[in-house]
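BUG: 3D viewer hangs when loading the predicted structure for this chain

Environment: internal workstation, default settings.
Expected: structure renders.
Actual: progress bar stalls at 90%.

Input used:
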Amino acid sequence: MTGTVYMQSVPTVAFIEERDLQMASVTDNGPDGLTRLAALFQQQGASTGFIRLDDPIPEGVRVVVLVRPRRALSAEYLSRIWVHLERGGSLLLALDPVGQGGNPDTQGGGVDRLFGQAYGVRLLNGLIVEPWFTNETAQDVRRSAIYAQANAIDHPVIQPLQDYGVPVLMWGARGIRSEFFAPYSSASGLLYIDGFGENNPQIYRAEDPAPLTPNIGADDQGRLIVGALAENASTQSRLALFGDGELFQNDYGLAPIPGTQTPLHAGNYVLIQRTISWLLGLPVEEWRALPSGFTWLQIDGVGDDWGTQGAITTDAEDDTTIRPQNIRQVRAFRNQDYLYLQVETLSPPEQFARLLLDVDGDVNGELDRSLSADLDQITVAEGDATAPVPDGVMAIRQIIELRLPLRVTGAGGIVPRICLTTAREMAFPVEPDCIENVPAPFVDQHEPSGLQLPNAILASVTVNGNANIRAGAGTEFNAVGSIPNGEIVAVVGRNEAGDWIRIQTARYDGWMNAALLHLTTSVDLLPVLP
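Structure tokens produced before the viewer hung:
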């Protein structure tokens, strides 16, 4: 890769290349390589190269990078990294779970003991699993996809992830212990996953593997940290430690949407970009802006970050006497995934406000379903059936803000009717204040928040180009849309034969050929759907 060299000059950032470590390589521009990671360092003004640990690390190197070593660091290698840190250098280290494709450093090993004492971060061994994971899932990195959430701490690296509720996707994550205080240092746990870490290495056996079972006292359980940053006040050195190597690899955490330069996983891109800035010691005001092509809006009931986005529809102010329930105007737009609504009332809305929406999903002039949204729940009703909308978000403060997935609202540009009422029982009910035919123009932006369906079984798309989503379980059904390679979808169920899978995203609800998906569970464990 242009700009990545081996010791022709001392680089700012040095990637470790050691054959016996079997690490991810910066000279590999394939799916497992690190060329995109090197490019992000270069965008921040750093020169990049690679070094061998058979020799001492040159003094001019500011940041050393080691991603996904499949073998443990020897005492000699570790001592050379330690000298680099002692003179104020920084380190980015990403380690996969023990047993999943290799045997990197373990709990109680050299990295664990050294970094635990000097930086307050320690290693756990186990693979963090979801309840529906199987042994086949554990043995295949592509099938062990799992979302991590931003921790509730004050740190600029994860501030955008907190502000916009953006998760980070990992593939086979291991836990890390992060202690806020250690001698001469402090550590911050950035990301967490609620679950348990399976510590039994026998789960990876090809024949008669041990079951994935949470064993009290043997497995780590609860809120498990999977990424941490630490600083040593004595040496002024910095350490970024992550429990997943794929997070930094070309066609995993740093994959683009095919045919574009837009990140496929916005949370991963933002996390890595800001971690790089922190490792280089750049002032926060010099950190790169959030990537373009995404809708960066906080659903917080304030609305000061909308700018000029959305079409405004005004309403008569004399159609109800209750000012908090009197709509002044509605602003609306839709991106690739969600419908955004902003409802302004004559005086600040009450916390019991409820919005009622009619939906013409297929834009044929007939109402298909209705939605009800308040702070307690968002539901969709079609005929006699009512279901929750778990990835809908509502906030009420100065105004009402609402974000709804297009799979329930439809991708059309008009909302036939919106009514504002109250969820409180009133002795003398007042008719809702309604506004008709609210336009929601399309903005060609993606949603940065990834899949927001909680407790969903995940699957990743594996196809050259795009994969069709169909209205039914078979190629004879119409295609309702398509999604690109690497996209993460939620799995709802399967047909009886198990060769078609019902999936959901924010935009789509339909069927995909099972051969095009890497499921994080077994097809046999999915419910059969009509």
